[in-house]
Every structure is written in C-alpha cells, then in structure tokens.
Write a structure and sequence with these properties.
The chain has a single domain, classed as Chloramphenicol Acetyltransferase (2-Layer Sandwich). The protein has 14 helices and 17 strands. The strands form four sheets. It has a six-stranded mixed sheet, sandwiched between helices. Strands 10-17-16-13-11-12 form a six-stranded mixed sheet, sandwiched between helices. The N and C termini lie far apart (about 60 Å). About 15% of the residues have low confidence.
Length: about 475
C-alpha cells in the first residue's frame, strides 16, 4: 500500500452533515439486511474482510488547526475491524419487529469520533437460521447512492451493483444539501501516512479557495435553477391548484422536538405493481410514494382530532451524474465508488406540497404535475441555496433551535433504487434490505424507501415519545399504495 495520498477534505455537504449533528439522535444512516439460512461465523468473517477493504471505512476524520481548511480523512493507524463488528442475539420473540428494534438501537447509538464512523451488528437467533446484518454509518460518510455502493461492495462476486442514480436518491433523510462549488478537481497533494504537514494543509486550502472563487459566477448562475428545484417557479401558486405553495407546513402534533429514541416499521410491496400504477397515472414511483405516506400521516392526524389539507414533504435529489452502466460487485467500478472519493454527500432537496384530502388518484395527479414541472438537467442545484444557509446557522450556533422550531416541512421521504436482481452475501440469499435513517429536529415521522430484487420496502421511522407505535403509519402507507395499484 502506498505511504502517500492526496488530502481528502470534506465537501460542503459533508461538512454540514458533521456540524449539524447537534440533536439527541445522532445523524446516522444505514441498512438492515436479512440473510436466509446463513452461517454466523462465515458471515462475520466475510463481512469483516470486505468492510476492511473499503478505504473510507478505515479512515477517521481529523480537524486541522484553525485557518487550515476543512476536516480531512486520514487512515486510522489503530484501525481494527473487530472493534466495529459485533453480534447480538435477537430478543424474544425473535420476530421481524424484534429485529427492527435491534436495528433501531444500533442506528441511534452515537459513533465514536476518534475512529472510523461506522458499526456493523450481526444478529442471530432468528427463525430458520436467518442472520440479520445492521450496517450503520455517520451521514458524513455517504448519501444514499454512496451508501448503496458500500452495500454492493459487500455482496458476493456477481452481485449486481446499484444503479448510479435514482429519481430522488439519498438514504439520509435530511434537508441538509451539498454545497460543493462546481469546477475542476483540486490538484493532488501528497500526504504522508502519518498525516499532512501544516505547509501541505495551507497550500491545499489556498488552492481550494482560489478555485472556489473562480467558480463563484457559475455557482450564482445555478441559484435560479436551485430555487425552482426547491420550491417551484412561482411562490404562492402551485400550477393552478391554489395558493398553498407559498405557505409553510401546517402545524401538527407530528412536528415537535424529538428525542434520542426511534422505532421502526416496514411496508413491503411489489415494485412492478407500483411502477405500473405510476405509469397509468402519468406519475413516477416517487410521486406514488409521496401520496401514500402523506395519506397515512393524514389518517393518523385525523385520529388525533387534527384536520389538515396538505402536508409538505422534503425529498432529497441526487446531484450525482450517471456514470454509465452499473457493473457488478467487486468490479473496478464499484471499488472506485467505495474507495472514498465517490462517497460523501452530493444532494439537493425538493419540497413538495401534497394534498391529504380527496380521492387518491386526484392527489397523485396534482403531485405529478408539481414534480414534473420542477425537473431539470441541473439536478441538485438547490444545494447552492440550502447548504450555505445551513452552514451559517451551524456557525452561529442557531441550527439546533432552527430544526427544533422549523415550519417548512412536515416529513422527509428518501427513495433509493437498489439492484434489480437477487443479492447474496457470504453465500446466503439476502431476503430483505431495510433502509435506516433518523431525521433531526421536530420531524417525528420519516420515511426511507429502497427498491431491490423486485420489492419496494418502505421504512417508517418514528420517535416513540411522539408516535408510540409506527405500525399504524405503516398500515396506512400500505393501504394507500395498494389502493393506487388497484385504481
């Protein structure tokens, strides 16, 4: 292995994910994999080897002295994969809900900042010899597409890699957007294995500042496109559907400051049926999901005696560009994506106002009209608007207050497209992949979606102090999805 490498700084989006981790629930993301008829020792041995083979997962974050730029990644000389991989026995009754409780606990435990920011928990004691694998990373490591690249690298040879882009992709359910200024790559700066010198850090920082200044005009030109992506073209008008677009999210009991705990429930439906329903209505799968999850929230709110006409959903939008046809796990393409530079956070955000009254097909038509009018070639342009504002709030110490009191959105929905074919790990078939995320601030209900192997899995994430049991929201989402499939 080479003893020298380039300085790998955090991007603007990465930096916000790190600095904005100020709430009681850590900004962790991840996935739960359920492996059929697996041998625990084999799974642990194979996963440990593959996880240790990903550069970023062997690196820790280092904060340079003041004035020498952003934090950077450095190989951890004390790295020991065994310190990151543990196993537990699923508590009784060892069913799917009990496994989700184990995953929620792993998700909400803070990660140590003095070593690589991830953990893997292997869960045995499941029926039929199944083994659960909970992989958790700090959001600073990767957005949804980057996280999928990590999962692909864990698959057996021949396992299909994830598609490079999704229509609205990021496991991380957050309005925090990347704010990297477009431009040419920074020239490589050699870094000793022990870390860069002060001179090297200063030189690298100056070069980045110069390049950022040169790219400023192009960045300002994206502001208009970013505003369209974020809120639409005309404030106060939503394509002929009244003046709701200009208002913030309605006040409701699902938007209150949240604590450190989370509970999970899942919905599992046939992806082909949802796609067919979306096509029939001139919509996308993501549009269908927007209507389904808000329908479930509306039902819960009405049961609480609260009646709202619309809810506002924050949808991450990937700023990554297609890299061509996806390869297979273990190929050079996947290895490159998981090496580190292609991870990180490259995401903008779109806020969508969704009606929660009226027939489901009518709601879907309205949502499809809204989202189609806001698609453009410059994906993720809203990062240039949201990122700097959030970084300023973090810098002045106001970010925690802002996210605890915001009235811009009602919930988050993230949707990532995984591999279409079956996946195996350590010779065991992966029966299910459950996306994991935890929203900060006063958003007590979050939805994370992953399509894989012909199934569409929706994870409902709630703060149990606000919504004690997420199964009602899961049931409402399932009912709405099946209703749209039938129509």
């Amino acid at each position: 292995m080479s003893t020298r490498r380039t300085i790998e700084r955090l991007s603007g989006g990465d930096l916000v994910e790190l600095r904005s981790d100020v709430g009681p629930a850590p900004k962790n993301v991840g996935a739960l994999l359920v492996l059929d008829d697996a041998d625990l020792a084999t799974v642990e041995r194979v996963l440990s080897r593959r996880l240790a083979g990903i550069d970023r997962l062997r690196q820790r974050l280092v904060a340079p002295p003041w004035g020498l730029g952003r934090p950077y990644w450095l190989e951890d000389p004390a790295f020991d994969v065994a310190a990151h991989v543990t196993h537990v026995r699923c508590p009784a009754p060892a069913d799917h809900d009990a496994l989700l409780d184990v995953a929620a606990d792993a998700l909400t435990q803070p990660l140590r900042r003095d070593r690589p920011l991830w953990r893997a928990v292997l869960v045995d004691g499941l029926p039929g010899g199944a083994v659960g694998v909970v992989l958790v990373m700090h959001h600073v490591l990767a957005d949804g597409v980057g996280g999928l690249a990590v999962l692909a690298a864990l698959g057996d040879p021949g396992t299909p890699a994830p598609r490079p882009l999704g229509p609205a992709s990021a496991i991380a359910a957050s309005t925090v957007a990347a704010a990297a200024v477009p431009g040419a790559p920074v020239p490589a700066v050699a870094v000793p294995a022990a870390g860069p010198t002060v001179t090297a850090l200063l030189a690298d920082h100056v070069v980045r500042l110069v390049r950022a200044a040169a790219a400023l005009p192009a960045g300002l030109a994206r502001v208009g496109r970013g505003r369209v992506e974020l809120r639409g073209r005309d404030r106060g008008r939503d394509h002929g559907h009244g003046h709701d677009q200009g208002r913030g999210a309605p006040r409701c009991s699902l938007n209150v400051p949240t604590g450190a705990r989370r509970r999970l429930a899942t919905v599992d439906v046939d992806l082909a049926e949802v796609r067919a329903a979306a096509r029939r209505h001139g919509a996308t799968v993501n549009d269908v999901l927007l209507v389904a999850v808000t329908a479930a929230m509306g039902t819960v709110l009405r049961a609480r005696g609260e009646d709202v006409s619309t809810l506002v959903v924050s949808v991450p939008v990937s700023a990554r560009r297609p890299t061509g046809r996806a390869g297979t796990a273990g190929t050079a393409g996947t290895a490159g994506r998981t090496r580190g530079g292609e991870l990180g956070n490259q995401v903008g955000v779109m806020q969508v106002r969704v009606p929660v009254r009226g027939p489901l097909p009518e709601r879907l038509a309205r949502v499809a009209a809204t989202t189609s009018a806001r698609r453009h070639d410059d994906r993720g342009a809203s990062a240039g608007l949201v990122g700097p504002v959030f970084r300023l709030l973090v810098a002045v110490g106001a970010f925690r207050w802002f996210i605890d009191h915001q009235r811009l959105i009602s919930t988050f929905l993230t949707n990532v497209r995984g591999p279409a074919e079956a996946v195996s790990v350590a010779g065991a078939h992966v029966r299910e992949i459950v996306p994991l995320t935890s929203a900060p601030g006063n958003v007590a209900v979050t939805f994370a979606v992953l399509s894989s192997g012909g199934r569409l899995v929706v994870t409902v994430v709630t703060d149990p102090d606000v919504v004690a049991d997420p199964t009602a929201l899961a049931a409402g989402t399932d009912e709405a999805l099946r209703g749209l499939v039938r129509d």
